Amino acid sequence: MEKKSSIFKPLGGKDILDKKVKKSGKYDNIKSSLDTGKTIRDVEIMSDQLVAKKKNEKFKRIKCSTLAKLLQEQTYDESVYNLGNQNENIYNFDQRSQVQSSVSGLRNDHDDTHSVYTVQTGVSQVSAVTYATEQLGINQNTKFLLLDLRDPEEYSLWRIRESINFPAPNIARDKTIPELFRFRNQPDKLIIIYLGDERSGTQYAALFFEKGYENIYLLSGGCESFLEEFPTLCEGRAVPTPKRQMEENKKEAKMELTKKKHENCVTGQIQRRY
């Protein structure tokens, strides 16, 4: 008689020696006392942020919060300027309609309007100058040029407000624009550049400096980080939703679903009673 093959597997499994032992994180914080140089493990620990920030960089960086203050300051100045023009038109209309008013009274009204305009502008300018901006040499007279170094397709989808598209390959080709020429190495003028992330912009900031632009500033974190912190200062036909907002929307949707389930459960219990 033929022997029947055993259907039972050996104890412990066939591939027990091939299984990998799970690594314990108990001793991860313990380092070797011997320094034998750089290893692969050290390279993996280095983040993109540390690679991007080198001590020998000649260009400067500007924070997202500082750029946001500059954009808000420019928007406020434009709104105050438009308000001043509207007040002037209203004032001229009142001057034509009120024929019996005295000339001295009109002068007093004009002086009061001008003084309020000056005070509002002064307060706005002072509020925009913080310790961080003073370290960069930014004051109330500072003007900036914001350049988007991404491709035109990406720029058309979304961008930071007041930015001008200037693709990065144009730097090596020595192509320029009139705005860039006017802002080059001028006092109280900044040339701010950005890409999607900070690391990809370091080489182009260094290239700008090599081309003779000493007032070049790289936006820390790139436009992606700026979008997360200041989404209202971004514009375009397809502005991405910030990750923080997406998480909040998911939480709200989950809470709404839980609330509906609870209401349905209570309604079902009431119907059973009656």
TrEMBL record:
Keyword DNA-binding: no
Keyword Ligase found: no
InterPro entries membership: CEP41 (IPR051889), Rhodanese-like_dom (IPR001763), Rhodanese-like_dom_sf (IPR036873)
GO cellular component term of the entry, any: centrosome
Domain Rhodanese, first and last residues per copy: 140-235
SMART domains: RHOD
Pfam families per UniProt: Rhodanese
Name assigned to this protein: Centrosomal protein of 41 kDa-like
Protein species of origin: Stylonychia lemnae
